[in-house]
Amino acid sequence: MVRITEQLIRKRSEHNELIIGTLEELSLHQEDIECIEHIGSWCRELKILFLQSNLISRIENVHKLKKLEYLNLAVNNIERIENLEGLESLNKLDLTLNFVGELTSVETLRGNYNLRELYLTGNPCTDYAGYRDYVICALPQLESLDGVEITRTDRLKASKDFRVNRARIVQLELKHRIDRDEQKVRVEESLREQEESVKDLDEEQRATQFWQQKSEHCPETRNMMAKYAKKGRERPEVGVGNGEKVPQRTLKLFAECGRPYSLNEAKIKFEFLDEDDRYELNLHIYKFLDTSCIEVDAQPNYIRATIKGKVFQLALKDEIKTDESTCKRSTTTGQMLIVMPKLNPQNISFREPEVYSKVRRDAAAKTDLKGTVDYKNIIKKGGKSAEINEDEIPPLI
User: From 312's CA, which of 117, 189, 225, 343 has a CA 20 to 30 Å away?
Assistant: First the structure.
């Protein structure tokens, strides 16, 4: 069983400098957590809490989170909505793909007057006849159910047969409870028989047989799936003869000739702009990642950014001026812009300074060149002035 510890919460609060007392957003998804504990006492300022993809079977110990606005409990083992009355600021609740069969338990949310969005998609209760009309009428403060907007017409239609609809849903809940009790006995017996049949097999063969067999969709099966998945992650590396371990793949940043490779181990989005005089690289860094977890190294023929140990490297066609390169990060979006001037700019057009152009225009304006030119009478014909003095003609060289 995975417990919620102080170390785990601090690990997930890097964007808040590991301070949990003022933490406003916390993500504890895919940790195989089975019980909600300590969060209400340690993180009173939380506004967003992600607990999806765990093994939580009961909603509890969250009544102290008075500022919580969004609670995500999707893909867990919850069968009943409860213990959420103290969440005064709750605006959105996501219970997608759980096992909620007691639909009337949504009435416990009537006191959450700020609740506007509720998601119950993938729960057994959504198959009940009149499910949507009942929830709309039971929770008049809702504006959206399962991602679909609730209109005034929907409310009027749902309010007409609310009592009859609720009585029918109570009967369906009773039937679901009986089926669920029978399922528990059936699944428990099936798991016991399976354990008996694989007791002589090794761990790998047991896992293979488990993943190949058919199973029922229920919390018990989901717990077993998490158990075998965890064993698969913890399984030691397979040897290559005589107990030798498979060598881990080493990250290559350069070719044998020294040419840098381009790679994106961090798997982040980016935009690269190749201008005549500079390169511009825009990295879409995670918004809440602290800048101290990022290292940038600009070299003449490549740029490298190390993000929490993951390398992003880009080979450059032209050499850059490393001493004039700049790196800036947005405090709003978290994106990082790296500008790298080229050492030898190409196709740069040098325009004449505006002051010289103005002087030339002024000089041209002073000369009177208006009107037509009489090019036929440039040299006058006849008279002594028109005679050519041969002594003034320079000799040919």
Answer: 343
Return the closest-CA partner of residue 121 out of 87, 138, 98, 141: 98
Q: Give the model confidence (pLDDT) of 130-169 as tens digits.
A: 999 999 999 999 999 999 999 999 999 999 889 999 999 9
Determine phi and psi for 105, rounding to 5 degrees: -70, -10
Question: β-strands 92-94, 117-119: how paired?
Answer: parallel
- With a CB cutoff of 8 Å and minimum separation 6, the contacts of 91 are 69, 70, 114, 115, 116, 117
Q: For the segment 196-232, what is each residue's pLDDT rounded down to a tens digit?
A: 887 878 788 888 888 888 888 899 999 888 888 888 7
Reduced to 3 states, what is the DSSP secondary structure of residue 298?
A: strand
What is the separation of C-alpha 235 from the centre of its chain, rounded to a whole number of angstroms?
29
Q: Cβ(271)–Cβ(282) under 8 Å?
A: yes
Between the CA of residue 279 and those of 57, 285, 347, what are the distances in Å?
A: 53, 18, 14
For residue 207, give the H/E element and its range.
helix 203-212
**How far, in Å, CA of 301 to CA of 166, rounded?**
71
Question: How far is the CA of 40 from the CAs of 2, 88, 92, in angstroms?
Answer: 18, 14, 18
Distance CA 35, CA 54 (A): 9
Query: What's the whole-number average pLDDT of the chain?
Result: 85
How far apart CA 125 and CA 135 sit, in angstroms, is 11
CA distances, 253 to each of 56, 261, 302, 309 (Å) = 43, 5, 10, 14
